[in-house]
Input
Amino acid sequence: MSPQLATTVGPSLYWYLTRSTGAVALLLLTLATVLGVIDVQRWSTPRWPRFVLDALHRYVSLLAMVFLVLHILTSVLDSFAPISLTDAFIPFVGSYRPFWLGLGAISFDLILAVIITSLLRARMGFSTWRAVHWLAYASWPIALLHGFGTGSDVKSTWLLALSLLCLAAVAAAVLARVISGWPVRVGWRSVALGGTGAFSLFLALWLPNGPLGSDWARRSGTPTSLLGHSHAASGASASGR
Output
């Protein structure tokens, strides 16, 4: 994208890029999480051998990181909200919806730690690598909350449906994994199933009065100087901006 075009079109172009790259990143992160949860090794076949499924998991994760980086860069370049590169790495220090933006920073840091340790896996002990790799599962629900909390178009039908579809996919993967190995490690499986159910219930109770409720822009921590513009952006989004 040329500087001249960016200057001509203004923040609205970056708004499109930020939301679209964020949506694609969520889809890819969801797919990577599902592949990890169901344990692709269990589903290998002569037609789809283990190394192919492992490679798919790895490449999907790397592609998710690429779109996350694009999501961050377009957010920083957009002059509408005061978001800096520091906000992408250090949580809760920004002035724009600091808590919800901070969740995004935590999720990104966790994924970054997983990617780096995976690239250095040969130089690390397996137990250390595996312990860090478990962070990927924590990054997904945090990223989903970040999207709900910061998205200016969170009430859009397509984005809400996409987010709920991702939630259903991860929940189905957890259920399939729990059932496939029952009752081996029943304690861990119960924790996974209970945690997934509790998170889903939390979203069902929180969303109607949170991001889907009234005056969320103010309650989420949008600076007072941007509140009028935030309401206008939400209206434009709802009308197909």
Notes: The chain has eleven helices and no strands.
